[in-house]
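Ticket #4471: structure output looks truncated?

Reporter: J.K.
Steps to reproduce: submitted the chain below (332 residues) through the standard prediction queue, then opened the result file.
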Amino acid sequence: MCRKKLINSLCISCLVLFISSANAVEKLPLITLAGPFATVSNPLIRMVESNALADVTDELKFVVWRNPDQLRALALNGDTDFIATPTNVAANLYNRGADIKLLNVSIWGILWMISREQGLQTLADFKGKEIAMPFRGDMPELVFAELAELQGLDPKKDFKLRYVPNPLDAMQLLIMRRVDHALLIEPAVSMALHKTKTFPINVIAPDLYRSVDLQKEWGRLLKREARIPQAGMAVINKKLSPYIIERFIEEYAKATQWCIDNPDEAGKIVANRIEMLVPEAVSESMKTSQFEDVSAIDSRKELEYFFNILHKRTPALIGGELPDDGFYYTPK
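Returned output as attached by the reporter:
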Protein backbone atom coordinates (compact mmCIF):
# COMPACT_ATOMS: atom_id res chain seq x y z
CA MET A 1 0.00 0.00 0.00
CA CYS A 2 2.82 2.35 0.94
CA ARG A 3 4.56 1.51 -2.32
CA LYS A 4 1.41 2.41 -4.31
CA LYS A 5 1.10 5.75 -2.52
CA LEU A 6 4.76 6.47 -3.17
CA ILE A 7 4.37 5.72 -6.89
CA ASN A 8 1.27 7.95 -7.07
CA SER A 9 3.09 10.73 -5.28
CA LEU A 10 6.05 10.49 -7.64
CA CYS A 11 3.73 10.53 -10.65
CA ILE A 12 2.01 13.68 -9.40
CA SER A 13 5.34 15.36 -8.78
CA CYS A 14 6.55 14.49 -12.28
CA LEU A 15 3.33 15.87 -13.76
CA VAL A 16 3.71 19.15 -11.85
CA LEU A 17 7.32 19.47 -13.02
CA PHE A 18 6.28 18.74 -16.62
CA ILE A 19 3.53 21.37 -16.56
CA SER A 20 5.82 23.93 -14.92
CA SER A 21 8.58 23.37 -17.46
CA ALA A 22 6.10 23.57 -20.34
CA ASN A 23 4.82 26.92 -19.10
CA ALA A 24 8.24 28.30 -18.22
CA VAL A 25 9.56 31.17 -20.35
CA GLU A 26 13.25 31.14 -21.10
CA LYS A 27 14.74 34.55 -20.29
CA LEU A 28 16.62 36.29 -23.07
CA PRO A 29 20.04 37.77 -22.26
CA LEU A 30 19.11 41.09 -23.93
CA ILE A 31 16.12 42.88 -25.44
CA THR A 32 16.96 46.05 -27.38
CA LEU A 33 14.51 48.92 -27.82
CA ALA A 34 15.16 51.75 -30.27
CA GLY A 35 13.52 55.12 -30.78
CA PRO A 36 14.06 58.79 -31.66
CA PHE A 37 14.40 61.75 -29.30
CA ALA A 38 10.63 62.20 -29.46
CA THR A 39 7.55 61.52 -27.36
CA VAL A 40 7.04 58.01 -28.73
CA SER A 41 10.27 56.94 -26.99
CA ASN A 42 9.37 58.21 -23.53
CA PRO A 43 7.60 54.98 -22.49
CA LEU A 44 10.61 52.96 -23.71
CA ILE A 45 12.88 54.91 -21.40
CA ARG A 46 10.43 54.44 -18.54
CA MET A 47 10.46 50.69 -19.22
CA VAL A 48 14.25 50.57 -19.05
CA GLU A 49 14.34 52.70 -15.89
CA SER A 50 11.74 50.51 -14.15
CA ASN A 51 13.20 47.21 -15.42
CA ALA A 52 9.75 46.46 -16.80
CA LEU A 53 10.58 43.19 -18.61
CA ALA A 54 12.76 41.62 -15.92
CA ASP A 55 10.68 38.43 -16.12
CA VAL A 56 11.68 37.80 -19.75
CA THR A 57 15.13 39.37 -20.17
CA ASP A 58 18.32 39.85 -18.17
CA GLU A 59 18.91 43.28 -19.72
CA LEU A 60 16.65 45.87 -21.36
CA LYS A 61 18.56 48.36 -23.51
CA PHE A 62 17.46 51.59 -25.25
CA VAL A 63 19.27 53.11 -28.25
CA VAL A 64 18.48 56.36 -30.06
CA TRP A 65 18.02 56.81 -33.80
CA ARG A 66 18.42 60.37 -35.10
CA ASN A 67 17.00 60.29 -38.62
CA PRO A 68 14.96 57.99 -40.90
CA ASP A 69 18.09 56.46 -42.45
CA GLN A 70 19.37 55.34 -39.03
CA LEU A 71 15.90 54.00 -38.24
CA ARG A 72 15.89 51.88 -41.40
CA ALA A 73 19.38 50.58 -40.66
CA LEU A 74 18.37 49.56 -37.13
CA ALA A 75 15.26 47.86 -38.46
CA LEU A 76 17.29 45.73 -40.84
CA ASN A 77 20.53 44.95 -38.96
CA GLY A 78 19.03 42.25 -36.75
CA ASP A 79 20.24 43.74 -33.48
CA THR A 80 17.00 45.46 -32.45
CA ASP A 81 13.83 43.81 -31.13
CA PHE A 82 11.26 46.61 -30.82
CA ILE A 83 11.47 49.98 -32.55
CA ALA A 84 9.57 53.26 -32.28
CA THR A 85 8.85 54.41 -35.81
CA PRO A 86 6.75 56.75 -37.91
CA THR A 87 3.87 54.64 -39.17
CA ASN A 88 4.70 55.29 -42.82
CA VAL A 89 8.29 54.09 -42.37
CA ALA A 90 7.00 50.85 -40.82
CA ALA A 91 4.66 50.39 -43.81
CA ASN A 92 7.52 51.11 -46.23
CA LEU A 93 9.80 48.55 -44.59
CA TYR A 94 7.03 45.94 -44.56
CA ASN A 95 6.21 46.44 -48.24
CA ARG A 96 9.92 46.16 -49.09
CA GLY A 97 10.13 42.74 -47.49
CA ALA A 98 11.28 43.51 -43.95
CA ASP A 99 9.98 41.23 -41.20
CA ILE A 100 8.19 43.97 -39.27
CA LYS A 101 4.77 44.18 -37.69
CA LEU A 102 3.14 47.29 -36.31
CA LEU A 103 2.03 46.80 -32.72
CA ASN A 104 0.30 50.09 -31.96
CA VAL A 105 -0.08 53.77 -32.66
CA SER A 106 0.72 55.98 -29.69
CA ILE A 107 1.47 59.38 -31.27
CA TRP A 108 -1.49 61.22 -32.74
CA GLY A 109 -0.36 64.85 -32.63
CA ILE A 110 3.17 66.32 -32.39
CA LEU A 111 3.44 68.56 -35.50
CA TRP A 112 3.46 72.34 -35.00
CA MET A 113 4.41 75.51 -36.82
CA ILE A 114 6.59 77.74 -34.64
CA SER A 115 7.10 81.40 -35.46
CA ARG A 116 8.69 84.66 -34.33
CA GLU A 117 5.43 86.35 -35.35
CA GLN A 118 2.29 86.32 -33.27
CA GLY A 119 -1.14 85.82 -34.75
CA LEU A 120 -0.39 83.32 -37.54
CA GLN A 121 -3.34 80.93 -37.35
CA THR A 122 -3.36 78.87 -40.58
CA LEU A 123 -0.79 77.76 -43.13
CA ALA A 124 -2.17 80.43 -45.46
CA ASP A 125 -0.73 83.02 -43.05
CA PHE A 126 2.77 81.71 -43.90
CA LYS A 127 2.47 82.41 -47.63
CA GLY A 128 5.68 83.91 -49.00
CA LYS A 129 7.63 83.23 -45.81
CA GLU A 130 10.79 81.16 -45.33
CA ILE A 131 10.17 77.99 -43.28
CA ALA A 132 12.74 75.58 -41.89
CA MET A 133 11.56 72.09 -42.90
CA PRO A 134 13.04 68.89 -41.39
CA PHE A 135 13.11 65.45 -43.06
CA ARG A 136 12.85 66.53 -46.70
CA GLY A 137 10.30 64.50 -48.65
CA ASP A 138 9.23 62.56 -45.58
CA MET A 139 5.99 62.46 -43.64
CA PRO A 140 6.06 65.91 -41.91
CA GLU A 141 6.62 67.74 -45.19
CA LEU A 142 3.92 65.72 -46.99
CA VAL A 143 1.37 66.51 -44.25
CA PHE A 144 2.33 70.19 -44.60
CA ALA A 145 1.98 70.02 -48.40
CA GLU A 146 -1.41 68.29 -48.24
CA LEU A 147 -2.81 70.87 -45.82
CA ALA A 148 -1.36 73.75 -47.85
CA GLU A 149 -2.97 72.50 -51.07
CA LEU A 150 -6.32 72.10 -49.34
CA GLN A 151 -6.11 75.87 -48.75
CA GLY A 152 -5.35 76.57 -52.40
CA LEU A 153 -1.61 77.01 -51.91
CA ASP A 154 1.27 75.59 -53.94
CA PRO A 155 3.83 74.22 -51.43
CA LYS A 156 6.71 74.69 -53.89
CA LYS A 157 5.84 78.21 -55.00
CA ASP A 158 4.02 79.86 -52.12
CA PHE A 159 6.63 79.11 -49.43
CA LYS A 160 10.41 79.32 -49.23
CA LEU A 161 11.26 75.96 -47.75
CA ARG A 162 14.69 75.66 -46.13
CA TYR A 163 15.44 71.98 -45.67
CA VAL A 164 17.32 70.76 -42.61
CA PRO A 165 18.22 67.21 -41.48
CA ASN A 166 16.03 67.05 -38.36
CA PRO A 167 13.77 69.10 -36.05
CA LEU A 168 16.58 70.02 -33.64
CA ASP A 169 18.49 71.65 -36.50
CA ALA A 170 15.38 73.63 -37.36
CA MET A 171 15.06 74.64 -33.71
CA GLN A 172 18.66 75.90 -33.67
CA LEU A 173 18.05 78.05 -36.76
CA LEU A 174 15.08 79.67 -35.00
CA ILE A 175 17.04 80.37 -31.84
CA MET A 176 20.00 81.79 -33.82
CA ARG A 177 17.62 84.13 -35.72
CA ARG A 178 18.54 82.55 -39.05
CA VAL A 179 14.91 81.73 -39.81
CA ASP A 180 11.65 83.16 -38.49
CA HIS A 181 9.42 80.10 -38.94
CA ALA A 182 9.76 76.33 -38.76
CA LEU A 183 7.78 73.12 -38.81
CA LEU A 184 8.81 71.35 -35.61
CA ILE A 185 8.05 68.03 -33.96
CA GLU A 186 7.71 67.64 -30.22
CA PRO A 187 9.81 67.80 -28.08
CA ALA A 188 11.76 70.20 -30.35
CA VAL A 189 8.83 72.64 -30.08
CA SER A 190 8.97 72.74 -26.30
CA MET A 191 12.79 72.80 -26.38
CA ALA A 192 12.77 75.91 -28.56
CA LEU A 193 10.24 77.70 -26.35
CA HIS A 194 12.13 76.70 -23.21
CA LYS A 195 15.54 77.84 -24.49
CA THR A 196 14.30 81.27 -25.54
CA LYS A 197 13.00 81.89 -22.01
CA THR A 198 16.13 80.68 -20.23
CA PHE A 199 19.26 82.71 -19.38
CA PRO A 200 21.62 83.36 -21.09
CA ILE A 201 19.96 82.43 -24.40
CA ASN A 202 16.94 84.62 -23.62
CA VAL A 203 19.20 87.68 -23.84
CA ILE A 204 19.83 87.15 -27.55
CA ALA A 205 17.16 84.72 -28.73
CA PRO A 206 13.93 85.91 -30.35
CA ASP A 207 10.49 85.51 -28.84
CA LEU A 208 8.91 82.38 -30.27
CA TYR A 209 5.25 81.35 -30.40
CA ARG A 210 3.34 78.16 -30.99
CA SER A 211 1.48 78.90 -34.17
CA VAL A 212 -0.46 76.36 -36.26
CA ASP A 213 -1.37 73.00 -34.74
CA LEU A 214 -1.19 70.80 -37.86
CA GLN A 215 -3.48 68.22 -36.29
CA LYS A 216 -6.22 70.81 -35.89
CA GLU A 217 -5.68 71.90 -39.48
CA TRP A 218 -5.99 68.24 -40.50
CA GLY A 219 -9.32 67.96 -38.73
CA ARG A 220 -10.62 71.30 -40.00
CA LEU A 221 -9.66 70.89 -43.64
CA LEU A 222 -10.43 67.19 -44.01
CA LYS A 223 -13.50 67.31 -41.76
CA ARG A 224 -12.13 64.57 -39.53
CA GLU A 225 -11.08 64.17 -35.94
CA ALA A 226 -8.10 66.44 -35.26
CA ARG A 227 -5.47 63.73 -34.98
CA ILE A 228 -3.03 61.90 -37.25
CA PRO A 229 -1.65 58.36 -36.67
CA GLN A 230 1.96 59.47 -36.86
CA ALA A 231 4.06 56.99 -34.89
CA GLY A 232 3.99 53.85 -32.83
CA MET A 233 5.86 50.68 -31.91
CA ALA A 234 6.81 47.78 -34.14
CA VAL A 235 8.39 44.38 -33.53
CA ILE A 236 11.25 43.45 -35.87
CA ASN A 237 12.63 40.24 -34.38
CA LYS A 238 10.74 37.25 -35.81
CA LYS A 239 12.40 34.94 -33.28
CA LEU A 240 10.62 36.52 -30.31
CA SER A 241 7.92 34.37 -28.80
CA PRO A 242 4.31 35.60 -28.80
CA TYR A 243 4.50 35.71 -25.00
CA ILE A 244 7.41 38.16 -25.03
CA ILE A 245 5.67 40.33 -27.62
CA GLU A 246 2.52 40.38 -25.50
CA ARG A 247 4.56 41.27 -22.42
CA PHE A 248 6.11 44.17 -24.32
CA ILE A 249 2.70 45.43 -25.45
CA GLU A 250 1.43 45.23 -21.88
CA GLU A 251 4.40 47.06 -20.38
CA TYR A 252 4.52 49.73 -23.08
CA ALA A 253 0.85 50.52 -22.37
CA LYS A 254 1.59 50.80 -18.66
CA ALA A 255 4.62 53.01 -19.30
CA THR A 256 2.61 55.24 -21.66
CA GLN A 257 -0.03 55.83 -19.02
CA TRP A 258 2.67 56.48 -16.42
CA CYS A 259 4.22 59.17 -18.66
CA ILE A 260 0.81 60.78 -19.18
CA ASP A 261 0.11 60.77 -15.45
CA ASN A 262 3.62 61.86 -14.42
CA PRO A 263 4.93 64.30 -17.06
CA ASP A 264 7.40 66.01 -14.73
CA GLU A 265 8.98 62.74 -13.61
CA ALA A 266 8.97 61.52 -17.20
CA GLY A 267 10.80 64.68 -18.20
CA LYS A 268 13.58 63.94 -15.72
CA ILE A 269 14.22 60.35 -16.74
CA VAL A 270 14.05 61.12 -20.48
CA ALA A 271 16.42 64.09 -20.22
CA ASN A 272 18.80 61.95 -18.20
CA ARG A 273 19.00 59.49 -21.09
CA ILE A 274 19.05 61.96 -24.00
CA GLU A 275 21.54 64.71 -23.24
CA MET A 276 20.24 67.26 -25.75
CA LEU A 277 16.86 67.41 -23.96
CA VAL A 278 15.95 69.20 -20.73
CA PRO A 279 13.37 67.95 -18.22
CA GLU A 280 11.07 70.97 -18.37
CA ALA A 281 10.78 70.79 -22.17
CA VAL A 282 10.09 67.05 -22.17
CA SER A 283 7.43 67.56 -19.51
CA GLU A 284 5.79 70.35 -21.50
CA SER A 285 5.86 68.25 -24.66
CA MET A 286 4.02 65.47 -22.83
CA LYS A 287 1.28 67.91 -21.87
CA THR A 288 0.81 69.26 -25.40
CA SER A 289 1.17 66.05 -27.46
CA GLN A 290 -1.71 63.79 -28.40
CA PHE A 291 -0.47 60.61 -26.75
CA GLU A 292 -2.69 57.51 -26.69
CA ASP A 293 -1.78 53.83 -26.95
CA VAL A 294 -4.13 52.24 -29.53
CA SER A 295 -3.49 48.77 -30.98
CA ALA A 296 -2.50 48.54 -34.64
CA ILE A 297 -5.66 46.57 -35.42
CA ASP A 298 -7.88 49.24 -33.83
CA SER A 299 -5.93 52.00 -35.61
CA ARG A 300 -6.15 50.40 -39.05
CA LYS A 301 -9.00 52.49 -40.45
CA GLU A 302 -7.26 55.77 -39.58
CA LEU A 303 -3.90 54.44 -40.74
CA GLU A 304 -5.25 53.48 -44.14
CA TYR A 305 -6.84 56.90 -44.59
CA PHE A 306 -3.48 58.48 -43.73
CA PHE A 307 -1.52 56.08 -45.92
CA ASN A 308 -3.81 56.77 -48.88
CA ILE A 309 -3.02 60.47 -48.63
CA LEU A 310 0.73 59.81 -48.46
CA HIS A 311 0.47 57.31 -51.33
CA LYS A 312 -1.30 59.85 -53.50
CA ARG A 313 1.57 62.29 -53.03
CA THR A 314 4.59 59.96 -52.90
CA PRO A 315 3.82 56.24 -53.31
CA ALA A 316 7.36 55.22 -52.33
CA LEU A 317 6.87 56.69 -48.87
CA ILE A 318 4.79 53.65 -47.87
CA GLY A 319 6.48 51.20 -50.23
CA GLY A 320 4.17 51.65 -53.22
CA GLU A 321 0.93 50.24 -51.80
CA LEU A 322 -1.14 49.91 -48.67
CA PRO A 323 0.27 47.20 -46.40
CA ASP A 324 -1.84 44.04 -46.21
CA ASP A 325 -3.19 42.17 -43.17
CA GLY A 326 0.23 40.82 -42.24
CA PHE A 327 1.46 44.31 -41.33
CA TYR A 328 -0.91 44.63 -38.39
CA TYR A 329 0.08 42.57 -35.37
CA THR A 330 -2.69 40.27 -34.19
CA PRO A 331 -2.46 38.82 -30.67
CA LYS A 332 -2.14 35.04 -30.62
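Triage note (M.O.): checked the attachment and the full C-alpha coordinate line is present. The domain at 111-222 is CATH 3.40.190.10 (D-Maltodextrin-Binding Protein; domain 2).
Status: closed, working as intended.
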